[in-house]
Amino acid sequence: RVGLIAACLIAINPVQVKYGLTPLSEPLFTLLVIAGIVIVTPAIDRFSWKRAALGGALIGLACLVRSSILILPAFLGIWWLWRLRWRGIAMTAIFTVAMIAVIAPWTVRNYLVTGAFVPVNKMDGHVLWVSNNPVTWENRLLWGNAYEGLPPGLNPYSSPAKQIAYDEEEKHLAISFVRENASRIPFFITMKFARFFSLLTRIPIHLKIILYSLDVIFVPISVVGIVILIRERRWALGPALAVIVATLVAVAIFWGDSRFRFPIVPYYTVFASVALGALWARLRGHTLQPASKS
Predict the structure, then answer these.
(1) Cα gap 241→226, rounded to integer Å
(2) Stretch 247-266: mean pLDDT
(3) Structure pTM?
């Protein structure tokens, strides 16, 4: 029942419909991450080096599409350590090594071209600067968003060495600005999440009604589903939660956009479906059967 509900909701989800048909990195990125999570989920409670290695390789491919998922092993490792203790460390190590092995050839290429250590790409400083600067923090129309028209500006036509220098300068500017405005960090992180969940989206009211009723409303419902799964000791939710947390951390650091929500829609939709399935069962006078295994 949960799978059927989730499939129906994802099929009509406006974010999935819009960006799934757009030639951007999100569709391929989402496919690779889901494939990796599907592989490692059965191994959340038992050691399996094959699943850890294959899952890590798939996530490595996803990192080559969008580097924002590079922090996933940290959150997945916490879950593995909790469930498997010392064997969880081995699982995390195997997963991470497999991920690095896939990324390594591109890292070597980057070193040969730029002369610097660049794991995937050198845009973190630029992305940090365009979202954490005086313009985006003072103009309420840009709260939680990004603004590209600031110096020094990344020139895509400059030499690789200059691109590295530009990026480092922008990172320094962004970190200095955030430190000088540390008291405002909680507010602007909130604004980034508000934009991420489309609460600051400037679209016609009828489109907002569609967006909120078919997508955003399921975010708080998914929290109920997570609580239900935890109460029933269904710990397989761990890898999916790790992806959501990794995504939210990236949003808090950089900026929010409904497009960045595309990769985690399947996860919170499934969690929301758990809550809706439990509600349906309760209305019919039944209760969900607890998991037989922890």
Answers:
(1) 9
(2) 92
(3) 0.88
Give, as one character, the DSSP assignment of residue 198.
T
Task: Quote the tokens at residue 175.
Answer: 């970190």
pLDDT given at position 155? 57
> Percent of the chain having pLDDT more than 70?
92
pLDDT value of residue 62? 96
C-alpha 194, offset from chain centre? 15
| Dihedral sign computed on CA atoms, order 199, 202, 205, 207 | negative
Q: Which residues contact 73 (CB under 8 A, 6 or more apart)?
A: 56, 59, 92, 95, 96, 99
Q: How far apart are CA 62 and CA 102, in angstroms?
A: 10
- Residue with structure tokens 């350590």? 81
> Do residues 252 and 144 make contact, with C-beta atoms less than 8 angstroms apart?
no
pLDDT of res. 225:
95
Q: What are phi and psi of 292, to 5 degrees?
A: -80, -20
203: how many CB neighbours lie within 10 A of its CB?
11
Q: List all residues 6 or more positions away from 74 whose beta carbon is below 8 Å from its beta carbon.
A: 246
End-to-end CA distance of the chain: 21
